[in-house]
Amino acid sequence: MKTIITISTPPRRNWMTAARELVDRGLRESIDRRFREVARSRRRVTRASEEAVDRYFADLRRRATSGTPKEKRTRRKLSALFHELYGRNPTAADLREDFTGSPADRYSIHHEPHMPAGDYAQLGKLDALHVKPISGGQVMTISFPKADRPLVVSDETARQIYFVGGDQDVREALQSFDARANAAGLLELGEARRIDYTQRKEQVPDPDVDRWRHEFGEETGIRPTVLFDPRHKRLLLEGGEYKIRPEGIVN
């Protein structure tokens, strides 16, 4: 099994970059102001302020603009502050080894236009997503055929999950979710309540258990939104405050 996923798509051709380009350029002023506020308190970070900063950076990843030299400098400053607060991001190989308890010694290259280019840690195979429709009603389950399940991967921030390959085409179910298009041309299905995935983990007390369930937002109540990219037929997670840890997906 391939354990590290390398995405070869040029960064300017993915949906995330397109979404950032739609953001009001006036956001730069509030970013700079918030950066200064956090920077002044970085030497005395409490648990509460760490959670606030987590939310802040999660929001920046979702909304930050891209393209001009000034915007790039702002992102570099924010990245440097993030690393000072939390330490350097692990590599994809580190994430994979911590998450599964086994060495990451293989790579595979995929072309996924909806993802930024880079290295990603494979966390397992996606069994199901449980989604609260955007219009309300009962939680609905998106199940995936065993023979064509997408891969669950994380970028090196350990705070963003993507789905690679497999059968992710949910066009026939869009009406059931009352899906709505956002400014970036993506369809919002609803709130992600739970993710089910399969992965053997050697570091857990019972390594023979390889099917896992994670309830999003169990600590803060803040859950990611499930989106569908109709052009590339890919599901996406946006937002939330989850993290990838050796013990599993947290929050």
Overview of this protein structure:
This protein has six helices and 13 strands. It is of the alpha+beta class and 251 residues long. It has a domain at 120-250. Strands 1, 2, 3, 4, 5, 6, 7, 8, 9, 10 and 11 form an eleven-stranded mixed sheet that branches. Strands 12-13 form a two-stranded antiparallel sheet. Helix 2 (27-40) runs parallel beside helix 4 (69-86). The chain is globular and about 45 Å long.
Which helices and strands appear, and what pairs or packs with what?
Blueprint: E1 4-7, H1 15-21, H2 27-40, H3 47-63, H4 69-86, H5 92-100, E2 107-110, E3 118-133, E4 140-143, E5 151-154, E6 161-164, H6 174-177, E7 180-181, E8 187-198, E9 211-215, E10 225-229, E11 234-238, E12 243-245, E13 248-250
Parallel strand pairs: 1-2
Antiparallel strand pairs: 1-3, 3-4, 3-5, 3-8, 5-6, 7-8, 8-9, 8-10, 10-11, 12-13
Helix pairs in contact: 2-4
Quick overview:
This protein has 251 residues and is of the alpha+beta class. The chain has 6 helices and 13 strands.
Order of helices and strands: EHHHHHEEEEEHEEEEEEE
Gyration radius from CA atoms, angstroms? 18 Å
- As a percent range, the share of strand residues is 25-35%
Assign an overall shape: globular
Strand segment count = 13
Calculate the terminal CA-CA distance, rounded to whole Å: 27 Å
Question: What class do helices, strands and sheet pairing give?
Answer: alpha+beta
Descriptive keywords:
single chain, 251 residues, alpha+beta, eleven-stranded mixed beta sheet, two-stranded antiparallel ribbon, globular
